[in-house]
Amino acid sequence: MSVRPILIAPDPRLKLVSEPVTGVDDHIRTLVADMIETMYDAEGIGLAAIQVGVARRILVLDVEQKEERRNPRVFINPIITWSSEATAVMEEGCLSVPEIWDEVERSQAIKAEYLDADGNLQHLEAEGILAVCLQHEMDHLNGVLFVDHLSKLKRSMALKKLAKAKKLKKAS
Ligand code: NI
Predict the structure, then answer these.
(1) Is residue 103 annotated as part of the catalytic site, yes or no?
(2) Residue 26 — φ and ψ, nearest 5°?
(3) What is the pLDDT of residue 131?
(4) Whole domain around residue 153: which residue ranges?
(5) Ion ligand 1 neighbours, Cβ < 5 Å
(6) Cα-to-centroid distance, 43 and ligand 1 (Å)
(7) Which of 35-39, 121-125, 163-167 has the lowest average pLDDT?
(8) Is 91 within the bounds of a domain?
(9) pLDDT (tens digit, 9 = 90+) per residue, 111-122?
């Protein structure tokens, strides 16, 4: 297992629509293991494969945020089969959009179907932070970042802030 570098916006690869996984083989299992390690290393609660430069419909999540209670979930080819009309607003961030946090409105609850790390079909009903995180990561599979949900003004402010932070980092 190894930590892979995370792509940072506006890297054009983050806009790609990821391709479905056709078979869960050793190559995919290595990728998944690396994604989990990369997510924990970056102290994130979710990561999509495209964030490490692989355009496949895979994401990993762990909303526990407690090292002693690690519970990584793996979603391969996930689809949302139902989403509640009721929405919730939560502050979101993204490992590919560092240092930016803003409120996004999403469905409060969802149902999803996906393959697990063994290639078995699974169903999940989620609400709260798990539902929000899953929707955020599913967006990545379609080339959408959370800042794309913000108003034009808020998004341009967020991206300016990110560009500035990048420049400072380069200068230091
Ligand atoms: Ni993200």
Answers:
(1) no
(2) -60, -35
(3) 97
(4) 12-171
(5) 94
(6) 12
(7) 163-167
(8) yes
(9) 999 999 999 999
